[in-house]
Design a protein that fits this description.
79% of the residues lie in helices and 0% in strands. The protein has 421 residues and is mostly helical.
Amino acid sequence: MQHHFSPTFWKAGHVGTLLMSLFYFDFCFAIWVLNGAMAPFITERFGLSPSEAGFMMSVPVLAGALLRVPFGIVAQYIGRKNAAQLNMGIVVLGLILSRFLTDSLAGVLVLGVFLGMAGASFGIALSLGSGWYPPKYKGLAMGIAGAGNSGAVLAALFAPPAAKAIGWDAVYTYAIIPIAIVMIGMQIFAKEPPDREEKHSLREYAKVLVNRDVWVFNLIYMVTFGGYIGLTSFIPTLFHEQYGVAKESVGQYTAVVIVMASILRIAGGGAADKIGGLRMLLVLCTTIIALTMVAALMPASPWVMVAVLALLFSAMGAGNGAVFQLVPLRFRTTTAVAGSLVGELGALAGAALPVAMGVGRELAGSYAPGFLSGSFLSVMVLGVLFVVMKQWTTSWVGTGGKALPEHHLDGEMLVITGGEK
């Protein structure tokens, strides 16, 4: 990692844009998971069953998933910096309207759609932040921008105590402040990257959207990011309901778990640059299988569960970094669209997880089925990786998933822009 954080890396791109991408994704992510962080308060206020609470938490995740591709396409036409500002502007509008939406469960669900807008920041932020960097540093640049999912720590640590002090409904209004600050910073310090390609037709973008490799990445991301965002939304409820942790104190248990995924996302991106994203994903998926099975045993001590989840989130975070070391190598000129689509199914899986947790609790009396669904998906990913690995490493990526030297890339443009060789 020391090699990657050398002056050469910082000089290779635009630091201001990279850092603003990080802050943009960070605070948007915090807002995206606000309903999950305050779920114990919302559940108590409206008397929700486990499955109803799971659905309430899934709405922002689902909306964020469905909005990622449209925002990714918009970013290609109006520029990623402009798309980021538009995205944050819509989020601020939703937060302003929150004072009228928190009186009923239906209103909270509508508010969840606006919170989902914040989740749509993903593809824009990663493409904006990494757009200034050459292929050999893409993984690290994407990892730094993607570390914005540490915003979940802000939500976990600060939202529950704030909800206790000022009321959970007022937290949404105060969340406008950090987003407004980021909008100002984005305007001042960020620059549109130079890698923006000539505009393609929607039909040409569709070639990327139906490309087989995009859907392979989607499946992998269902495990790494879907597991992360789904559990991030649900673990405050898990610790409150399963272990009896006070509503305002759940952040102390969840913050250490969430921050591990963010740290390991950067490390995962940097390590994938050095040893290859494919090699890493094989190891990490095996690790995720083992840890989700241990979590399904529902350890009696909350601190044992914290330890298990911290290791699990570390593996998922490193997996996120590894995936997005590979995506810009495969789709060099349409990273925003490809990245948004890859995030689409990942987030959709995350939306399903809180529901699976709640339904499992109602039907089986345990959260174990939710964890075991992650084990099952991870086994599927391992199988798919073994199938595609040879074709990938003989066409557009090097051994183990490392970037090919620049002089090998010219012949790869047919693969990169959507077709199969």
